[in-house]
Amino acid sequence: MNRWLSQHRAAFGLALRRLGATPFNTLLSLLAIGIALTLPAFGYVALDNLRNLGGSASGVQQISVFMDVGASREAVADTEKRLRALSTARITFVSRDEALKRLQTSEGMAEIVASLPRNPLPDAFIVEPANLDPDALEVLRKELAGWPRVAHVQLDSAWVKRFDAFLRLGKLALLMLAGLFGAGLIAVTFNTIRLQVMAQAAEIEVARMIGATDGFIRRPFLYFGALQGALGGLIAAGLVAGALRLLNGPVGELAALYGGDFALRLPAVPEIAALAGIGAVLGWVGAQLSVGLSLRRFD
Amino acid sequence: MIVASQLTKRYPGGFDALGGVSFTIGAGEMVLITGHSGAGKTTLVKLLASIERPTSGSLVVNGQNLSALRRSAIPYVRRHFGLIFQDQKLLFDRSALDNVMLPLQIAGLSRREAVRRAQAALDKVGLLAREKANPIALSGGEQQRLAIARAVVNRPTVLLADEPTANLDPESAQDILDLFTDFHRVGVTIVVATHDRAWVERCAPNVLRLDHGRLI
User: Fold this and answer.
1) In the structure, how many helices (H) and strands (E) does chain B have?
2) Structural domain for A237, as ranges
3) Which of A34, A177, B129, B187 is within CB 3.0–4.6 Å of A235 for a Cys-Cys bond?
4) ipTM, 2 decimals?
């Protein structure tokens, strides 16, 4: 156990020294890896923020039931009774007066509302069904539309569906992008390690002669690849955080213009750790491939 | 200790470097392999160190048949040997001490223990004062002694050398010969390929004479 530990510590130390021995090359490799990881990482954070934005928007997944403008109080009460009987839904009644008041508070609408000779708005119910399955919602919408004195039933989920589809598309594109850049990272590591093996050829040859196992020879290179990947991941996290910080000002202003309050979420510690971890794993894979191929020459 | 029977090495192209060589070397013996250039001395050393594999025949070292060895077992077999080459194969990117420490690091010793043993080995070959020197700053004889320190630091059972005195002046060669004799005296088996006459005379009759890949 002690031997095992001391060998790994030695290999790790050697990898660190090799990283430090050629600072300029190391910096360039780290930048290449960092930038390769930045694009998919930035895409992930952007999608995550969009999903937050979608989730925080109110009025998702609800059905609006508009009565005839001339519907009597009895008819409205009757409809409400029937709606409450559905029991699976939460029902909110919005009277036409209340709807008008709400409209008046909306930006730029006060004057228009004031100029109206009479309230054009109907009484309405907002139904929030317990079952959010799109098909079930559609069935419910059709049923409600068939009731007496109901003028119009609107399912407010169409944009949610579109938004979801957009997010799914974004996720898929992001996955493909991540795959490409992951392969790029492996290639960068592969090349760095190949050059290293060539530079260490004399040492590898001697070590082999005096009884070094494959594991002993590989270990420093694997640590090197993983370290380089992890540091590249940290650089990527830094770049993403920096970009988001720069964007946050303008995004906040934009949100304020729409009367909203929205700030981009910066990557959190687990996400930074994940990015470094992904970098380490990809770097390790690249090193493993490279060392495996390069060491065949020494057999 | 070392038993070879009908040992043959044929290189691609049909050249027989060794053609059916049989011999036995007992534990603690000092044996020379001699012969003209191209007689097969270096090939025999490479087979003993598992750097190459025999084409046919068997080679048993410490009860292990080297011709039937799995690839992953080779490093552990090599650790029984202290290998010394004509061209030393020292590493010029580190100090003399670090060169000698390499086998101990491979064996997984702690750094402190490795430094202690490497210094003892350097002391044995008379280079302790030069432990911090880069091997490139050492003379030919000193480089060869450094290579010997590296070969013996892990206390191998067999010291295996290929032309260790080929490029040295007679005085340095005598130093090397004396060192080998010392190790022989403490029970290390020693196999040396050489055509140095002084050695051959001193070691007779423990001499394997090779001619065109055959023992004579």
Assistant:
1) 7, 10
2) 7-57+173-298
3) A34
4) 0.86
